[in-house]
Amino acid sequence: MSAVYDVEGFYAGLVENQLIYPTGVQGAYGRGAVFEDILRRFDALVLRTAEADGAEEMMFPPILPRALIEKLGYLENFPQLAGSVHSFAGSEARARELTGRLHDGQRWEDLLDPTAVMLAPAACYPVYPNFSGLLPEGGRLVTVLGWVYRHEPSPEPTRLQSFRMREYIRVGAPQAVVQWRDDWLARGLALLRGLGLPAESDVASDPFFGRVGKMMAANQVDQRLKFEILAPVISQDKPTAICSFNWHQDHFSAKFGIRQADASVAHTACLGFGLERVTLALIKTHGFEPEAWPEAVRQQLWS
Ligand code: ATP
Ligand code: ZN
Fold this sequence. Notes:
Elements: H1 7-16, E1 20-21, E2 30-31, H2 33-49, E3 56-58, E4 63-65, H3 66-71, H4 74-77, E5 84-87, H5 92-103, E6 113-119, E7 133-134, E8 140-149, E9 162-172, H6 174-194, E10 200-203, H7 210-222, E11 226-231, E12 240-249, H8 251-256, E13 258-259, E14 267-274, H9 275-286, H10 295-301
Parallel strand pairs: 3-8, 7-13
Antiparallel strand pairs: 1-2, 4-6, 5-6, 8-9, 9-14, 10-11, 11-12, 12-14
């Protein structure tokens, strides 16, 4: 594809080629068959690449207990991204009020009550509580594929409100966890470059809320706790993060009482491939029609 980067043109091309189906809400488009085929084949390639590591597979729904979100401090750090599930739990009279308001074109949402769940903002969050207690010798390695929600509506096709992450989560001795993160950073770069993506890695930070959040983000960069692999998709100057690596130190271990086999402190780290973003990076780099992609790329995905 031409090296022109513009949000509107790329979005229009994705729609024209039935790769995506707009729904009228930003960041909530549907995915077409070809888009899904690319995404699932990339995910399968990641799984093949990591097969020898023997990760345990877990699968969670795209909702999390409200109490878990509270315990994780998500609302202190990222209230602007959170999504909450509400439902109707009122009387018949209140139900009639709701339908009455709907028919009159009035707002009705304040008649709903919060449920016990919120939308999952990261695929790895439901995993950590399962590590509580003493770990087996050598720690554990888990993989999850999950839908995550983040309230960040945007016209950019790369910024979705709901998207999938393939995550790997490692828990164990601090040095082993950092080594695992470093090894995966090199492996992730090789994997993505092997698919023809001009990928680069960099230190990064999370979008913590507010003024205090700015300090937390600066601290995260200083301590080199987060890395990203980026590739140009909608801009040459501001490449898009397609894969993230987080070293949490003892953040989750302290919250969930996770210890090594000898009861010493355990660390955790996770990495996540943003599956829609990788798919979009491949489409931007190689074109709207996968049949015309370079043979070397096709062989890896369609073998
Ligand atoms: P943690 O799990 O510790 O919260 P994380 O690394 O899983 O952090 P992020 O770094 O915020 O979370 O996101 C991981 C990956 O998900 C990013 O590298 C990117 O590929 C993808 N991603 C993030 N936000 C969006 C979005 N709005 N739309 C599409 N993909 C996204
Ligand atoms: Zn994670």
